[in-house]
Amino acid sequence: MRIAHVAPLYESVPPKLYGGTERIVSYLTEALVALGHEVTLFASGDSRTSARLVPGRECALRLDPRPKKSEIAAHLAMLAEVRERAHEFDLIHFHLSHFLHFSFFADMAGRTVTTPHGRLDYVDLAPTYRRFPRFPMVSISRSQRAGLAEANWLATIHHGLPIDIYRPAFETTEEEPYLAFLGRLSRDKRPDRAIEIARRSGLKLKLAAKIGDDDRAYFHDVVEPLIDGDRVDYVGEIAEDEKAEFLGKAAGLLFP
Amino acid sequence: MRIAHVAPLYESVPPKLYGGTERIVSYLTEALVALGHEVTLFASGDSRTSARLVPGRECALRLDPRPKKSEIAAHLAMLAEVRERAHEFDLIHFHLSHFLHFSFFADMAGRTVTTPHGRLDYVDLAPTYRRFPRFPMVSISRSQRAGLAEANWLATIHHGLPIDIYRPAFETTEEEPYLAFLGRLSRDKRPDRAIEIARRSGLKLKLAAKIGDDDRAYFHDVVEPLIDGDRVDYVGEIAEDEKAEFLGKAAGLLFP
Question: What is the pTM of this model?
């Protein structure tokens, strides 16, 4: 099949550091290429893929050091390009959460599928979904659907990952066992709960996480006062090739 | 003429507190109604206007206390409604900065006009503008055009305001004269410069301004340490009916 994948432009595919959605898009794209499909990836120009890459923007938004960027305009330009080439594909798979593509593809919704990788309980999503044709949707969990229960759900496909990239280290070389928190220090991800769980368990906690611009106030107010550099240690945002070791050596992963 | 004005959904029209764009849309809408035009305003449902109001969302985004809102989805729902009613209008005037409406109105760009009320030197705007038909644009200053020089500019129309709403108080009842800073404590608005100017002039400075979620880290890092509650005083975000007094009594307005 001729398949297009349309990734968000926030991070490259795969991401250099943080970036859950872009990582999953990468796994999926590579697997489809390996299965013999003709895959085109719309993503930031600094992405790496064995599919055909159509750059939606020179480089990914978040790590682009230029101060004045427009997330909305960047995605609109990419979507205009996807629209122009739509006839080249049997299926167009959108990995965008906030329906920015709906107005471009309203006349061919049936040839698309949308996997929103984020939460769907935002008050504006359900009324907006109803404004457009019933775009076919794939959920990443059953519970994710609750916020958009009446959508045209085709399937739930949990995030998969290559089976050999992470392996636990059953014998640790660490002086002291630690719990791991990996991801983003945002209100949604509940690092405050992870810290409380670690405190009560008596184990040390290492937080390896991004602090987004949107999260900085929350970090300042809630998380930073709880970090002591010893029992609760913030080790920064880590790269892809550091994750296997960080997770492998941990006594446990907290994802509260 | 049958004119539609499409306002952003961040603040009501007019805004309750901060909100430059929504304030100007209100002035313009009321003036067009007074001139006898048939005006429809697409804006948040808590707006007040003598035009016909079509609510794009129950209430404006920023002061909506619910935590999970989608700015993008909210605007998409409103734009879908404008598109559905497009045949009712001779002219549709968009007051949106990041081209979210372009994909909806590509087939009738000539019947629209767009006034972006923000800066246009974001790296993503010019390449995105070129992806769509040459939408007719109105600038709010000559210098604003620089970032999008090749756009289809029709005119520059400076922000106007009703002539009788602000008047200076030539005799002040204040103990000590003060300089005024009004607006938003963001990097773009340069409150740091205002503070430096006040310091060098020896005059007291009062900052009446919004601190947006995006601005909180900047406020924390740069502005807050300079506020002493005396020579440099943050008086919070003030309401429409407090502005005339705040500005009228000031020795001068700093807008650096």
Answer: 0.87
